[in-house]
Amino acid sequence: MTLISRLQILPMLTLLGALTTANSYGGTIFQNVGFGDAQIAVYDPIGQSFVADDVQLTTVAFAFSNMNPASTNAPVTMSLYQGAGFGGLLLDSVTQNLPGFLPGINDPLGFIDFDFTGNSLILGATYTVAVTTSTSKYGVAYHPNDVFAGGQLFESYVTSDPFHNDPGYDMAFRVITVPEPGSATLGAMAGLAALLLRRRSGR
Predict the structure, then answer these.
(1) pLDDT digits over 60-88, tens only?
(2) Which residue, 27, 78, 81, 163, is the most exposed by fewest CB within 10 angstroms?
(3) Cβ(186)–Cβ(65) under 8 Å?
(4) Tens of pLDDT along 177-197?
(5) Cα angle 124, 129, 130; round to 5
(6) Is 101 exposed, middle or buried (0-12, 13-18, 19+ CB in 10 A)?
(7) What are phi and psi of 189, to 5 degrees?
(8) Any idea of the CA torsion for 50, 51, 56, 59, to the nearest 10 degrees?
């Protein structure tokens, strides 16, 4: 009976492994090139749009800098919006304090993650993440040469400013997503559980 049960379980384990691998794509959107720094408080909110490459969001990071070392510390809030820009539905916001030490202007980029675990995305849909803060201390890195084709920088400064919502500008940012278990994978897991229960009851 034990040998038969193992022979029954082995194909199910093989199928489960194959299906899990097939559904475990996930993805990282990473624009890690900076040219200048924009003070968050001046352009507040300032952010970046992107197209979801998977369905479960985990973290979003911007490259923060210390633009005014003499200014006081204050929390930074990062918000997730549906669509391009800040006019869409607000999906979630995360507020946290930044580390005491941050790169200065023109220093190598320092990315800081905000945890958005639990937010579901629509594959191929556009979203925008933006930051706000009350202090003039913090900046975010950006690039003016359209280095990211899947979105653009958005901000809320005066519309006459050439920096305002220019599609050629992009922030330095990182978005990490993970897949949702496929129905086939869940079915295989259920079948495996049923076989294990059957084996236990037959002892």
Answers:
(1) 999 999 999 999 999 999 999 999 999 99
(2) 27
(3) no
(4) 998 765 434 444 555 555 555
(5) 160
(6) exposed
(7) -65, -40
(8) -20
At 3, is the secondary structure helix, strand, or coil?
A: helix
Q: Concatenate the DSSP letters of all residues of 61-116 into one string.
A: EEEEEES-TTSPP--EEEEEEESSSSSS-EEEEEEEPPPS----TTSPP-EEEEEE
Q: Which tokens is 77 given?
A: 């809030």
Beta bridge partners, 112, equal: 62
> pLDDT class for 2, splitting at 50, 70, 90?
very low
Q: Which two tokens stand for residue 108?
A: 């190598």
In whole angstroms, what separates CA 100 from the centre of its chain?
A: 23
Dist. CA 77–CA 154, nearest whole Å: 16
In whole angstroms, what separates CA 25 from the centre of its chain?
Answer: 15
